[in-house]
Structure formats: C-alpha cells, structure tokens
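Tutorial, part two.
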Amino acid sequence: MKIIRYSIFVSLFFLFFQNVYCADDILKGILPNRELEYILRLANGDVLSGYVIEMVNDPKDGEGIKLKTEVGNAIIFANQIVEITPKEEQYRHSHSVYLLPTADPISSNHFIGLYELMFFYAGAGVGDILSVTAGHSFLPGISSSQQISALNVKLTLLSMEFEDVARKMTLALGYNLAYVNSYNRFVHLYGVGTVELSRSKLTAMVFAKMGSKDFYDIYFGNNRIDLIYEDGSFGIGLGLDTRITKRHDLHLIGEIWNSNVAKPTNSGVLLGFRLCNSSFSSDFGITFFTIPYIVPFVSFKWTPF
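Running the prediction step on this input gives:
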C-alpha cells in the first residue's frame, strides 16, 4: 500500500509541476493554420484536437483561439488551456514500450525517468540516429555492489513512410549492457523493427546474449537467486503501444518476452496503461511470468525540453 500511495503522490506532483510550467505564454508562437492540427489539454481535464483558424482577444477573458474541431468551431481562451501541442509532437514516448525499446529514435525527446520507484534512468538522442539510455538502481538496504545498472545504445538505421494501413516502418540495431550486482554482467545485441498504424505501434525484436557465463549467483542483501542463462541464447520480444480511446493521453501498452526460444517457459507477459502528455508519462500494470510470478510495474518519465 505504501508503494501505491507513493506512486500516486509522484504522479500528482509531476502533473502539478507540468501545469505550472505550461501556464505562462501558453499561446506564444501559435498562429492560424488550417493544415496544422493541434492537441489541447484543458484545465478541466478535457482533451481536444483541431485546427487554429483565428486568434481572438476578449476584454474580459483575454487572449484565445478559435479552434475548428470535428463537431464545429469553439472559442477557447488561454486561461482554459494547460497545454497546446502540434499533433505530430504530442506523443514523445514512442522510443520504448516499457522495457522493450522500439526502433524509433529518442531524437530531441530527452528524458529522465523512474522505474519501480527505485531505478533512476535517463535517455538522450543525437539526431534521428543515435539513442542512449542509462540508469542505476537505489534499492534500500542493499550495498552498492548489489545494485543494478544498465546501458542501452540504439542506432536507428532506416525509416520509411507509406500511404497505406502501415504508415511508417522503422528499423534499428542495438547494444545492451547490464550489471545485476557488480560481478554479474549481461550483454545483448539486438535488432528491432516498429510499424506505425493509425492508432498503434507494433514492435518486434530479436536478441542474442553474448559473453562467457551460463550460471549466475545474484544477491540482494541476504536473498540469493541462482540464475541459469546460457550464452548464445536467442530470444524474442513483441510490443504493442496503442491509443485505445478518442482521448490522446491514454494508451494501452503490452509486451511479450522470451529469453531463449529453445525454452518456451522462459517467458513473460506485461500488460498495462500509459497516461501521458507531451512532457510527462506514467505507466501502470502487471507482469506475468511462467515461473509463475506476478509482479506489478510502475514507471514515470519526464521530458522537459
């Protein structure tokens, strides 16, 4: 229960900060454009999409816009708007599902994040090619030599757009290095492809474990885990990220993992929801393992730039 209360607190804190951050000069740089669609998040929680067709100014309510929507035109004033973003820039979290990296680059969507309330990480992009993510855990009561750290480097090599059901396809190659305790090193090479549909992104990954160890002794305090993970293991991952309502801020996310295709029992399924805007996202859900274990997951990302 403490973890749940803390998760809610963190979500509310970031959402409050985002509202304050966006409050000033909300319409600065906005001009009428009948070809550029905007997503608006209002102070009352509503989310609208449409085209700015006219700037307005009222002696009482101040600056505003006339927005052309699917159900007609609406006049909305700056003091009613929390966030206004071009549609193509509104969703800035497509570079990963949850753990699964997609083929999409981070680009300028640099972020800081928090996994499971105990693993801090950050990511940055260089152009539309290089994406780098790194993080380190801060597990309470655990020595520094027993913490977890990770580095992921991804090169987005190809991106093709289509005028069809599949609007875009992106391909990437990546390198992942992780330490579970300072003496247990895991190295993976992977290839990943992402297909963008009208409301969804589908991702498929293949990866191979590299190194020289098959057996690992993992310690967290006095708790020991014996792990068998053979070198040369070939695994797969599948991911889904889809907007499930007419709202632009609620997504369903899901992943399926298998660390060794020769052992179907080495699998896990993740299913949850993402609540997001152009600067902040929070993920909540459940992970099911064939061992069997059921583990809740939660993460927060802030993309302030």
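The longest helix spans residues 2-21. In part three we will examine how such features are distributed along the chain.
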